[in-house]
Amino acid sequence: MQDTVTEIIKDTTPFFTQDTIVFGILMVSLGLIFYTSSKKEGFWKVFYSIVPALFMAYLIPAIFTTVGLISPEWTSINEAGDAAEGSSNLYYISSRYLLPAALVLMTLSIDLKAVFNLGPKALIMFLTGTAGIIIGGPIAVLLIGTISPETVGGEGADAVWKGLSTLAGSWIGGGANQTAMLEVYGYNQKLYGGMVFVDIVIANIWMAIILIGIGKSAKIDKWLGADTSAIESLKEKVSNYALEKERNPSLTDLMVLAAIAFGTVGFAHFGAGYMSGFFTDFVNGLEPGLTRNLFTFLSSSFFWMISITTIIGIILSYTKLRSYEGAGASKFGSVFIYILVASIGMKMDLMLIFDNLGLIAIGAVWMTIHAGLLILVAKLIKAPYFFLAVGSQANVGGAASAPIVASAFHPSLATVGVLLAVFGYAIGTIGAVACTFLMQLAAAG
Questions:
Q1: Do 138 and 445 contact (CB within 8 A), yes or no?
Q2: Nearest CA to 88 among 14, 179, 192, 178?
Q3: What's the total number of domains in the chain?
Q4: Would you call 196 helix, strand, or coil by DSSP?
Q5: Which of 22, 133, 148, 170 would disulfide-bridge 178, Cβ 3.0–4.6 Å?
Q6: 303 lies in which domain range?
């Protein structure tokens, strides 16, 4: 008699599954956050002096997901016992439509020369973040392996270090680099979901910590002994320009801004389709192996969408359209960014922290080393918290998160986050390969 194993599938359908309703809930949440944070006295003044509004825009959707009100994806089971998968498209729409729209509106008034005048510390902190990921992985494997050898074990396609290689790809570059690592090392795809889960949990917790730190950035900069004059000069320059051009926007102004934003979105997607298609053929024509996977990011349409959007924004900043900053270009961009933040928060189920604690522990140690190295180097070179936060998110969060963090300091700084994140795509695979080699040695030891 042959034994059979029946997989128990749990119904995880949230209370609200329609994106129209979920979007309304997120928008009402954002409206309440901004309304309460605008209070100048009483409880809310004290509350928001401790907890930044941007963090609440991230946390509240996460709480809604945790209690089952909404969800990014779910499994439904009908009366017959058949299971069906469901998902929300809000993050996709926010990252593919609203993010490029936000980036071009925020880049419209950028002073590129002033950005470069920020100096080399932004790049140093970014590369420090990369180094933290490369060395953090093997150290985490060694430490957790000492306590729980089975957590870092496995053989062949099930070897945990192979799965962790996908985290290295994601935390240095992005989704394309993560996929490349999955292909390079041939990790068991049935187990891959566990690594994606660790990626979501640890990366989102770290982003939450960074967002909280933004509210304390002045105190942190004082502790670091940082010179923030170049950053303040850029912020002041852009703010003064906005005040100089400020006007009550007419309907024509608003329609032109909409044309700039979503015309750019359309062109960026059009160009990304051609560029990713061309480079997909180019990459597939290379010999299988490391060389092919180093260039995998070039076949990512998201990479090209972000790159094309940024280039368009920089070009437009040298035209008369730059004056539309006075009509509120960066404010509209900030609206789109906050919607993206809420959709990212929606992806985080806080209870997932308690699932697979072994892998979560590896991720937590890994990210702690990344953070510790960033803090150490920032203290040594007296880099502002802005460079630490954006340098980290350009690695761990990529092009979706880095401009969010950068724009939280000032909308004019969003471009800094994008430029570093794009650089992360370029070095993501080679950095992840180096990290994986070290993790393999650590697991074997």
A1: no
A2: 14
A3: 2
A4: helix
A5: 170
A6: 92-444
| 7/108 same-domain check | no
pLDDT at 20 over 90: yes
Tokens of 240: 């003064």
What is the tally of helices (H) and strands (E) in the chain? 20, 2
What would the pLDDT profile of 88-106 be if each residue is shown by its tens digit? Answer: 999 899 989 998 998 899 8
Structure tokens at 410: 């000032």
My answer on whether 342 and 262 are in the same domain is yes
pTM of the model: 0.78
Rounded to the nearest 10°, the torsion over CA 97, 100, 105, 107 is: 180
Domain end among 88, 119, 137:
88
Angstrom distance (rounded) from CA 98 to CA 92:
9
* Residue 292 and residue 286 in contact, taking contact as beta carbons nearer than 8 Å: yes
Q: Are residues 276 and 323 in the same domain?
A: yes
> Using CA atoms in the order 60, 66, 68, 72, what is the torsion angle rounded to 10 degrees?
80
Q: What tens digit of pLDDT does each residue of 149-177 get?
A: 888 887 887 888 888 999 998 899 877 78
Q: Left, alpha or beta for 51 (phi > 0: left; psi -120 to 50: alpha)?
A: beta
